[in-house]
Amino acid sequence: MFKRTKVTDGTATGQGPDAENWDGKEVGFRKKSKVPGVMITQYIEKLPEGKSHPDFTRKPIALTIQEGKFAFFKAIVTGDPKPTVVWSRNNGDVSDPARYQSKYDPNSNEHTFEMPHVKPDQADTYKCFAKNEYGQAMVTVVLNVIEVGFKMTKAPQQQAEVANCNFKKVLKRRSKVVPKAEEPEKKEGEIDPKFWELLMSADKKDYERICAEFGVTDFRWMLKKLNEMKREREEEQAEFVKNLSDLKPIHINADGTASFELEFDLLDPSSSIYLYKDGEMIPYTKELGDKMKHCLRKVGRKYIFSMRDLMPEDAGFYQLDVEDVNMFSTDFKMVDFLVKIQEVKAMEREDAVFECVISAPLSKLMWFGKNMPLEQGDKYDIEVSEDKLIHRLVVKDCMVVDKGIYAACAGIKSCNAWLVVEADKGAPKGKKTARKTTRAGGSGTDLQKVAQEQQQILDKEREERKEKIKAAREAAAEAAAAEEPEKTADSGAGKDKGAAVKVERIDKTSVAATTTVAGDSGSGHSAGKASGGAKQDGSHADAGGGHSAGKASGGARKDGSIADAGGGHSAGKASGGAKQDGSHADAGGGHSAGKASGGAKQDGSPADAGGGHSAGKASGGAKQDGSHADAGGGHSAGKASGGAKQDGSHADAGGGHSAGKASGGAKQDGSHADAGGGHSAGKASGGAKQDGSHADAGGHSAGKASGGAKQDGSHADAGGGHSAGKASGGAKQDGSHADAGGGHSAGKASGGAKQDGSHADAGGGHSAEEASGGSRQDGSLADAGGGHSAGKASGGAKQDGSLADAGGGHSAEEASGGARQDEPLADAGGEPGITSGLSDIHAIRGQPAELTVKMNTDCDGAWFKDGEPLKSGGGISITKDANIHKLTIHSCRDTDSGLLRFVSGDLSTEGRITVGDVPEFDEDDLHKFSKPVIVRVGQNAAFKMPFQPQESLTVSWFKDGTELKDGGGVKIVREPNHSRLLLRDCLRSDSGEIKIQLKNPFGAVEATSQLIVLDRPGPPEGPVETVETTSSVIEIKWNPPKDDGGSAVTNYIIERQERGHSLWTKLGDVSAEKTSFRDRNVTHGKKYSYRIYAENPQGLSDSLETADSIMAGIMILSGPPGKPKVVSTSKTCINLTWTPPEDDKGVPIIGYQVEKRKKDTNQWLALNAINEPIEDVNYAVKDVTEGAEYEFRVSAINESGAGDASPPSAMACAKNPNMRPCFKDPEDFLVVRAGNSVRVKISYEAEPPPHITWLKDDEPIAPWINVINTEGMSQLVIPSSKRSDSAIYTIKAKNSVGEAFFDVEVRVTDEPKCPGPVELEQTVYGKVAVSWVPSPDQELDDRLYYVVSQHDSNTRMWKTVADRLFANTYTAHNILPGIEYHFRVYAKNDMGLSDPSQSPTWGANSNRVPISSNGVSSMEISFERPPSILVPLKVHTPPKGYQLYMTCAVRGCPTPNVSWYLNNTCINSDKNYYITNSCGVCSMYILRVRENDGGEYRVVAVNSLGKAECSTKLTVRD
Fold first, then answer.
1. Could you tell me what percent of the chain has a pLDDT over 70?
2. C-beta neighbour count of 1319 within 10 angstroms
3. What is the pTM assigned to this prediction?
4. 1280: exposed, middle or buried (Cβ count in 10 Å: 0-12, 13-18, 19+)
5. Rounded distance, CA 1038 to CA 1018, Å?
């Protein structure tokens, strides 16, 4: 369970400061912190200098966490003196160390309050106090804990809430959306609560999609219920928030996260906000968005919920609640790719197409190109199919830079593919090729088929949901119907009790008994009369229930019973008919302000009274078997009736919105087809077919649409549409009419008469006229479709004298049965009726107008205008021709406008006439507008047309017959007295006719002008024809440009380029009348290209260039060169050479063209273009494949082109020649610090590839040493080296040609250890012998030597006095008395210096060698001695190419002369050896050891007292 913070006024244990340290009695001054939410109290008014009160630089962050997790708060405080920090909570103590731990990190200065394994009861408001002697700082932080397993509908802990008197939470509303695990078992067809939650948060444009998804088809019911639910929800939301707006459903962002947004203001900032997914609460954080999956951020008034690391299981239904009220709901769906995008290979300047199919409709995918989001624009087209399943990305005008990876992303699903753009090799260099019209790419599968299959699956699922809902409603209706008989007896007691029903005689030839019975009265709204037609047996057909203001009664049957009277919302009387057995049929109950009663049955029980909404009289037509068909209900202001079928039944009369007359036509068998409903202000008809039938006339029409006659004389269906005229069925050959489609019509829609005299069905609709059934040959009328009608709706009478059912509808008139042909008046239909009434018309001032009313009988009538009677005279003529009444206005005036009404007895029809004028233009304005507007390309063109202000005036602009719409580069301004058109940034293609049209109900007027956009002319028309070519003249010809740019071409400019040159030279220009040019400055045999420009006052056109070069004179080609010879081959190159042709035909050769042919193929491929000749007689062919065999041929090129080809060369294979392995620039010495990896890389060349072997000191290498062999390189790797890895490593490469060896010395070493103790000894005055114990590494490293540094008390500086000492002694010179000396000895190798060994101090009175005279005078002591070798030479065996040091130490007095010998040859003066002698240390250095450096080396030291020598041998290794 989600534990929320409880804020109370009391202080629980551990909440505030304790009595000892935090007495809480100190009163101070409130201070403001830089950190929001921190409360600071300063105890004294002025702080001492350098002191400060406590403050927080980082305050704890509120936390929502799951039960059992590790919760903690962190804070950083400042203050001088250092504050003491204490934590507490509002409702409980924090003294339990197992649950609460306070810690402090002195390094980061962070105070941490930790709660391991947090429990739900630890959810609370926590406080952090920081206090020193100058003040206190306090901050609060909230901890919310989510109990594991908590569900959204789980009841809160009511006992605790009641204990705290928090009844608001106790009475918390339960959500309608529950987790799937807790969902109750749904009944069949029950609507998911998610449906309503989504609708309340969705835009109106999404209602249809959501309804289709959940299978809801009754939109009217849905909208009504949704409005009720919205009002309730808004009242609940108003308790917590205000200004709820900008609800944005969940969507995928470019960074891979998903988010939804909304804006609102919390009335109480402490109100809690909760998030749910599929009814289950989910944890989130406000700050640590990078550590939790869900995050809710607030930016101003906007709240943004986001998720990262999306997975398929994240799909679901998300809700955001404030306290217990839902604010927003959204559905997060995942889609998958049924067909993924595929790799596309496109040529340069071609369009590339990526396409895919997804599993669910999605309005937009996210497209990426090379990790950048792509949008619709000049470079990219993003296309979506109508079903939103197929998505395409078109990369227009592909260039090489467009290649890369492109991706389509739908949520967390994505697919990607490469776009490979290949350069157009045939394009001329330095010129931009023309854009191609082809497209490359596509998925390679039938996407439409895949999408259709997926759409069928989606439609099937949607239909299943609809069927379930429909079945559930039908079951509910059946259950309600089962309970209805029990309530029938009580239904008559509503408003009229015991009403009598009088059965009238309908057939004039026979008299039926009048029976009066009492039945229940149904309630209904009716202002007219609705009755059923009489059947042959004397019974009446059912009177369809409708909204009627009259009387609705059942018809009398032959047996004396009355048929059912359809109940309706009636203000009149509705009664059932009496049956033969004396019982009454059911009288339909409804909302009625009059009387509606059921008929009494034989047993005396009353029948049910049916209900319906009708403002007139509506009756159903009777079938032959006594039953009546449904009378279609609709909103109609006229008369609507159903037609009767031959068998007595009538088809449905389609309901629709019509202001005219709509009726269905009767079929040959007596039935009538449905009259289609539609919006029509006129007459709509279908066109005639070959067989004479008319197609359906549907659509929005301001004229007349009728059914056309078929070949057999029948009319096709007249489709309903938006028409201001008349919609009727056409007559068939047999005299019948086809169906007249009902619609929103201000005219008349009637059924056509068939050959047998019957009428087709009249479709019911919203009609201000009359809708009736047609009469049949046998005298019966077709069914009149019921509708919301203010006219008359009647059923047709049958041959047997019965009346067809009159469909019930909203009618203010009478609905009765129709008349039969064999009797003057058939039953109720014998009364006069209006078959064609009036409609609203617009008449032009000064023009005649005629209004016609057609009756079904010859009867008189009167005309009225605005309630006043009209008579002939004063420009008005009233005539009558049999049953046709006409009113003619000879010249319409403004006073003729008004409401005209025709009245005949109880019948009437009306229509409004409006007199006005067709719009007009002023002559001056028209003349000014007709002048052409001339602009240049890129400029704006403006048109303005004044006119007189009028009502109902529509202004339209057209260009070349196409209407212009405001937007893009078109700006249309409509003012009351004028209209302006602005075309921005005109192009040449914008030239054309500009037309303005003014239109009102009386007509339209148009004015035209011309827009001329001036531009440079188009290029001259090609191709360029060569009229003449000789050795001295070339004549060319072309055609004028198709588009002169709006102004005449003045002249043409001709330029020429010689083949092989890049420079174009202007030759001259010619007048516009001349389209040819003769070039007389040509050289025989050379080729030239020409280009021609057209020029007009606006500038130069693009050029027309010759397709091929034109040669001056006859073509002379060179003979064939010599057969090419293969000089050498390799796997990447074949070198050729050849000899020039023996016969060049007297024309200089400018180069050669080389061709190649692969073995087993017949195609010769040119390796260079003719305009890029090879100037030399040798060529390196690099476009070869390793291992493939080729032959080559050569052609000589002169000014005329390439001549005959040479004989082909011998076959040459592209492979390297066999060669002995050899190594390329190897390194022979490598020093590595111990512990590091050793990598020895050796590059080699060999053919065939050699076998590589590595040896260590001539032994196989250890298994842990890795050898990596690649083509042309071998690498030896020692992962972690040791000193023991020091050795000479030998690589051996061997193939069939030979083998090669190479040695690499690897020295693994480390920084040396310091030498041992240093001793000082003076044996000679002014000299001190320095000796030391060798470094422990001396034996391990033969490259180790020593460095000696000296320090004296005079200079007080350390200086190096000896370097590269291989001995363990050194003699210091110039040691003066009275000065202190110190010596340091370092060991050094390739890694560097060791730590020094310090000598003892050498001073004036220390460490002197005592000299005993023994009675001998010191003057007699002699220090002279012959030379001696202190340190002899060592044996060296360096590798070839390595450096070498040789050293030895020599002593003698006087100083001996030292000479070096190699094989008994003195080398002191040889520059290959660097020889030094420093204080007896003799050194010889060789930079790179050569083979001839090997031999015996001897050092000879000679002075006046003697001679000393030492020798060694030097062996040079390969």
1. 69
2. 15
3. 0.31
4. exposed
5. 13
